């Protein structure tokens, strides 16, 4: 390769590295915020879980959201990102959901999809799978109000019998370098931890009416919690992907610089040989 | 004097934490006053103001958009999808929300789902404007 070409490649790689480095830092900052959001959401979901648990365990409360019914149609709630450049973040979830659906269902009438994120929407569209509802352009730090519409739609679709169970798929944030693909059965709410709370509550006006308010709110908060978790995982995996890209770019620049120097040295040596040869010919 | 711990929690984080000698709220079944030592209770709330009467005799107003109240002898927790302390309410935004909801209500009478939603939004906005005037 000519000297000039190598130089050009080094320059362009350096520029790419600058971008990936900046993106890494941006994602790191966003990850920080996302972790904080998840933390401030904690008390809310803990409390609501406690109350739901104590009502559900306390009595013979029966609510449609607590009861398992024969499954004719399954709902899938899939959380992806709006953008790529996040390593295997999106493909992990999508591949798994796609396979699961292929295995479990024979006809498209047996499942319904609710999708968050542009990547997921495009994925299912290109495979001609119909999407019941979707939301794209979710902020990096989503507020509850933003998610409320799609969450309550998912819950009401279960309530009115459009589907009989609802699974949620997202990446669970473990650490900055690890996130686990999670499948969670959201509805019916079968795995409510029975808390052994000391206080048995009085219910005003009645248990059933409280469940009517409480359970949808609980299910919606679970969806929101999962989304916060997924956002943290997204920022983390984008950060890791960008760090890897930066490292690769660094390595590449090293190699290119080495061959650039070699090439330059060869050119100089050749020039000297030519001059020496020329002088010898004159003598 | 005996006091009771009060916290108002939303999915976006805690909104209010403090001690009070009495908390009053508007439950679906009617007005509710909670003093320290109240028996454990759970009740759904309406879109309304929660009033926290603190030890100095002052009253704090917190706008809540429904949710429910959980009472224990020493602690009151209010879980709402959205809540704001009177002082934090942006009146302009609440007014804008009110106008939006009114327009939507006037605009379509046929779509039931949208109408109910707009009605709720209107209630919330009016509630916030009301409470903001009390700070």
List descriptors.
heterodimer, A: 283 residues, alpha/beta, Helix Hairpins, Pyruvate Kinase, Chain: A, domain 1, five-stranded mixed β-sheet, 6 strands, B: 135 residues, alpha+beta, ATP Synthase, domain 1, Single alpha-helices involved in coiled-coils or other helix-helix interfaces, 2 domains, five-stranded antiparallel β-sheet, 10 strands, 28% helix
Summarize the structure in words.
The complex is a heterodimer of chains A (283) and B (135). By secondary structure, chain A is α/β, with parallel strands linked by helices. Chain A has two domains: 3-23 and 241-282, Orthogonal Bundle (Helix Hairpins); 33-238, Pyruvate Kinase, Chain: A, domain 1. Chain A is built from five helices and six strands; from the N terminus they run H-E-H-E-H-E-H-E-E-E-H. Chain A has helices at residues 3-58, 89-104, 118-126, 144-159, 207-282, and strands at residues 74-79, 111-116, 131-135, 165-175, 178-187, 202-203. In chain A, strands 3-2-1-4-5 form a five-stranded mixed sheet, with helices on both faces. In chain A, helix 1 packs antiparallel against helix 5 and helix 4 (144-159) crosses helix 5. The model of chain A has no long low-confidence stretch (mean pLDDT 88). With 135 residues, chain B is an alpha+beta fold. Chain B has two domains: 4-86, ATP Synthase, domain 1 (Sandwich), CATH 2.60.15; 91-132, ATP synthase delta/epsilon subunit, C-terminal domain (Single alpha-helices involved in coiled-coils or other helix-helix interfaces). Chain B has two helices and ten strands; from the N terminus they run ββββββββββαα. Chain B has helices at residues 91-107, 112-132, and strands at residues 4-10, 13-20, 22-27, 30-34, 41-44, 47-53, 59-65, 68-72, 75-79, 83-85. In chain B, the strands form two sheets. Chain B has a five-stranded mixed sheet, with no helix packed on it. In chain B, a hairpin with a 5-residue loop joins strand 6 and strand 7. In chain B, helix 1 runs antiparallel to helix 2. Chain B is elongated, with a radius of gyration of 16 Å. Chain A binds chain B through residues 37, 40-41, 43-45, 47-48, 51, 55, 143-145, 148, 199-205, 209-210, 213-214, 217, 220-221, 224, and chain B through 7, 9-14, 27-29, 32, 39-44, 66-68, 70, 72, 77, 79, 81-82.
